[in-house]
C-alpha cells in the first residue's frame, strides 16, 4: 500500500492553483472538470513529478462539518498539512519576497525547523526542514 493522492480543502480552486504553482512552485498534474464548476485538480512537486499528488479539493459549501473543521483548524493556527523543504530559511525568504504571509517564522524545534504559512484558501500549511 502507498499514498498516491492527498487532499487539501480549498475555498477557491483557481486561486489555490495560482498560489500553489506560482508561489510554492508546484506543477499542475491533472485538471478534469467535474459537476458544479468543480475540478479534479492535482499538483505535484517539481522534484517528484511522479510522486504524491496534492488534490486541491473544493471545500464543500453544502457540508457544514467540513467547513467547521477547516475553519477551526485555521483559527487555532493548526496546519492542515506539511511540506518538507531542504533549506527552510531560503524558502522562507523566497516566499516573503512573493508576499506569502507566515503566522510562524522559521523556528527550531529539536531536530527540525518549522514555519507556518497561510495558503490564502482557508488553510495553514507547515513547512519543515529536518536538520538532524
Sketch the topology as an H/E string, one letter per element.
EHEEEHEHEEE
Strand order in the largest sheet: 1-4-3-2
Low-confidence stretches: none
Number of domains: 1
What can you see in these coordinates?
This protein has 132 residues and is an alpha/beta fold. It has one domain: 2,3-Dihydroxybiphenyl 1,2-Dioxygenase, domain 1. It has three helices and eight strands. The strands form two sheets. The protein has a four-stranded mixed sheet with strand order 1-4-3-2, with helices on one face. A four-stranded mixed sheet has the order 5-8-7-6. Pfam families: Glyoxalase. This is VOC domain-containing protein. It comes from Flavobacterium bizetiae. InterPro entries: Glyas_Bleomycin-R_OHBP_Dase (IPR029068), Glyas_Fos-R_dOase_dom (IPR004360), VOC_core (IPR037523).
Amino acid at each position: 500500500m502507498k499514498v498516491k493522492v492527498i487532499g487539501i480543502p480549498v475555498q477557491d480552486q483557481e486561486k489555490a492553483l495560482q498560489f500553489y504553482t506560482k508561489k510554492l512552485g508546484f506543477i499542475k498534474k491533472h485538471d478534469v472538470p467535474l459537476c458544479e464548476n468543480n475540478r479534479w485538480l492535482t499538483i505535484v512537486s517539481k522534484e517528484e513529478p511522479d510522486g504524491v499528488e496534492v488534490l486541491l479539493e473544493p471545500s464543500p459549501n453544502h457540508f457544514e462539518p467540513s467547513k467547521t473543521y477547516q475553519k477551526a483548524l485555521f483559527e487555532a493556527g493548526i496546519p492542515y498539512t506539511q511540506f518538507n523543504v531542504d533549506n527552510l530559511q531560503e524558502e522562507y525568504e523566497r516566499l516573503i519576497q512573493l508576499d506569502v504571509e507566515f503566522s510562524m517564522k522559521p523556528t527550531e524545534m529539536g531536530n527540525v525547523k518549522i514555519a507556518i504559512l497561510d495558503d490564502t484558501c482557508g488553510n495553514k500549511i507547515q513547512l519543515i526542514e529536518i536538520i538532524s
